[in-house]
Fold this sequence. Notes:
Largest sheet: 2 strands, antiparallel
CATH architecture of the largest domain: Orthogonal Bundle
Distance between the termini: 58 Å
CATH class of the largest domain: Mainly Alpha
Amino acid sequence: xxxxxxxxxxxxxxxxxxxxxxxxxxxxxxxxxxxxxxxxxxxxxxxxxxxxxxxxxxxxxxxxxxxxxxxxxxxxxxxxxxxxxxx
Length: 87
């Protein structure tokens, strides 16, 4: 095997390992029943300040949880909101 062939083989194996890790991370992300603000920011690519502004204007679906009234979001509602569907 030449050095070039070995390099290509390493590249292919590294890519497959990366793809499998990315799939498992995505599965963990979407298996959550609720998201916190950090997950919504990651999913929408919006800054936290933008999400807080949308919440204060009532433009994004959200809920409060617990005594401290922590903001939580339901993933299917966020996806529907991004698609422009009524929630």
